[in-house]
Amino acid sequence: MSEINQTSQLIAIAKAVTDSLAEYDAELAFAPEISLAELSARRVVVVPLSQKYEPVSRSEQDATYQIQIGVMCRAKEENVPELLALAERIALPFQLRTFCDATCTKVEFNPIYAAEYLRGKSLFYSVATLTFEQEVES
Fold first, then answer.
1. How many structural domains are present in the chain?
2. pLDDT for the residue numbered 21
3. N or C: which end of the chain has fewer CB within 10 A?
């Protein structure tokens, strides 16, 4: 595999994830803000989160990229089960999918939903972290 610019690879994966979520009107954001006044509809936001490199030999390293998908909307407690199902429908299909030569090896929800936002602001907020792995030349 040829040497690549790692930061642009993180962003390329985030863009590919965003594009694959077009049916949810997903948007790519680098510093997302939640404005309750502007949140009239569901919002799906993709954020490039982190990257890590571990050498496996003198000439190769394992690259790990993390992308977060946030699902936000106004909600009441009775809406939580259907919104949890939506968050899972959005994130779980990424398992073992490959974008930009990196494969999604893990999907983690943390928080699966934020109870404090639900109670205090009537806001459903769920975050899925997708972990992508790729071997690259050092």
1. 1
2. 98
3. N
